[in-house]
Structure formats: C-alpha cells, structure tokens
Amino acid sequence: MRILIVSQYFWPENFRINDLAIALKARGHDVVVLTGVPNYPSGRYFNGYGWFSPTRENWEGISIIRCPLIPRGKGGGLRLAINYASYALSASLLGPWLCRGRFDVVFAYEPSPITVALPALLLGRLRNIPVLLWVLDLWPESVAAAGSVESPLILRMIDRMVRFIYRHLDLILVPSRAFIDRILSQGAPLRKMRYFPNWAEEIFTRTPEVPIPLEMPKGFCVVFAGNIGAAQDFEAVLQAAERVRGENGIHWVIVGDGRMAAWLSAEIHARKLTATVHLKGAHPLESMPALFAAADAMLVTLKADPIFALTIPGKIQSYLACGRPVIGMLDGEGAKVLQESGAALVGPAGDSGTLADNVLALYRQSHEKRHLMGQSGREYYLRHFERNHLMSELEQWFSEVRDPGPLHKTA
To answer: Is residue 203 a contact partner of residue 286, using CB atoms and an 8 Å limit?
Structure first.
C-alpha cells in the first residue's frame, strides 16, 4: 500500500510514530509523512531547520514532507495554540499540493493536538481516501486538565470540533480501552473503534548497542525518562524525594525536557535537592536502552485527574520491554497494566508519601527480587504489546477501510 501519515511531529523529534513508519516501510509499504518543522520539546527549531528549511527529506527510505509552523516556544497556552493552529493551517493549505500521487489510506497520529486530524480529513475528502486517527490524547479534557485552557467557551468550541472530527473518520484507534466510552459519548459509533496500544521500539528488547549517554550517580537510581510537563506532577515527585533524602544512596535521575523543565530545575535548587535529584536533559532514543539498563528502577507518574486515569503512558511499554522494575504514581488504566505485569510497585496519583514508601521498599529489596520483577514485566510486554503483532493488526484495518465489504458500507 501507499500510506500517507499526517503527524505534526516526526523525526528527528522523538515520537513513536517514527517507529511505526519504519515498521510499515519494512513490511513493504510506501510511506510518506506530512509533518512540521521539528521543534519539540525545546520549543526552538532544531539545528538546520527553520522557516526556509527543505520541504522534502528522506529518512530510512521514508519520504518526509515538511510544512512550516510557528514553534511552541516555552509551551504557554497561547503559544501552544498558535503552534497547533499553524501546522493545521499550513498542512491543510499545502498538503494537497505537496502530497502527490495516489494513496490507499491516510493515518493521522494524535498525541496532541487533535487539530492534526483536520488536514488529514481534508486530504481524505479531496482524494477520496479513508482516514484513520490514532487518538493518544482525549480533547478537550486533556487540555483542561493540563491547565492549557480554562475558558468554558473555548472548551465547548474544542468539543464541537472533536465531535466533527470523530463523525467523519473511517476508523478511530485508541491506546486504552478506557478511551472508548468517552469517544462514544462524543458521537463516534462503536463500529469505528479499534484498540491499538503503544509498544516499545525494538531497541528496547535487545542488548544496548549505544553506550550510556551520561554519568549515573553511585547508588540506587530511580530514572524518569520523557516529557517534563504539568501532567507528570513533578511537585509530588519532589515531595517524595524530600521524604527519602535522609536515606543514603537513593538518587532520582530525570532525563528529558519539556515546558516544566526550567521550573523543575529551580525547585531542585530551592529545596536543596541537588545531591539526590539530577536533571540530565534530553538524549536521543538510541541511547535510552543503555540508560534504562543502568537504572535500578524506572519511574512513571501522572497527575490525579479523571482524564489521566484513562491513559496508559507510552513509556510504560518501553520500561516493561527493557526488563526493569517500575515504580508508578498514577491511577486507572496505567496503574492496572503495571499491577498486572508483576513488575511494579504502584501508588495513587498525587500520593507522594506512597511514592516515597515504594521507592524505599524497592531499594531494600534484593537484587534478585528486582531482577525477577523486571523479567515478569518483559514477559507481560511480549504477551500484550509485541510490535509485530500490532503492526499486522494495523495492516488488516488498512485493508478493511480501503476495501470495505457490504456490511461495512451499510453499517
């Protein structure tokens, strides 16, 4: 098939859509990606990119078409809105001219914003191509929970846009079964829904090939890897770090970047936690397996909010795949997966006391017990989130919408 992926984010930005495109290419499909100019998470254009950067690139045999956008800056609400709108507008205006030839399906990737579906739907309508949307973030609830938008009027307007999008899609893919009821309540029919969870890139299931990118502190290292944003509740993480600071040898290693990184750095210094909480910045995906292998435990957190309880953070699959024990501070579906895996100690979202207790409990366990926890998580990952099985399902859905049978047409 010839597949058009519409995603505001793509390589060299670090998102799972990169691995999905590579997997589809490896299966013999012709993959074209309509994306923006890379600027996530720093908020600045990557080196070598800008307003006048090349429109077309090729990466791993994948054709990349870039549309201009206004970078996200420090990630404030207004700046984010401009960033989202600029990509949706430029991709809608330029996409039909830049994406030449016939495509079999359009696949839109939505970790946020939902506006990425608008150019995808436009291209689908103009070319008479079926459109699938992978919904990784529920709107408008997620923007309200993160504090990006507080106006009831604007939230109602976003909800109307989301309902419009859902009505006009051919299939809606969700990473958590808990998403289904909410999307149904916004007018999407059940026949359009498919469960499509995240997976881990293959490098997490192999022996690390790239050296560890940073010097790890000596002792018991709890590693957080990923976006440093409001949703991750670093206030509670710092409270937990304060509770255990008297226990010699426990270190919190935070690898990543995001809109709360500057705040986090200031708080670490203000609370005099620099000896035990280490902010290490962002590093390439290729170096993550070595970093994870050097960790004693991996950390995943989400704020206490009903919308986040529906989510399974994508980092959970990566943590489980690499065979490391996990400490979780989150509710709902993500907590359920971790508990079922046998690889984790999990406490409620926002509960810094339980987080501290779980860190201490894992710290005091034997190396052998932690190893068995990690192996249990890896086995769970292979049963539920194995990449090749998920890619085969996705190919089946592509065929389903490209060549719908009589039942699908009349449903």
So the answer is: yes
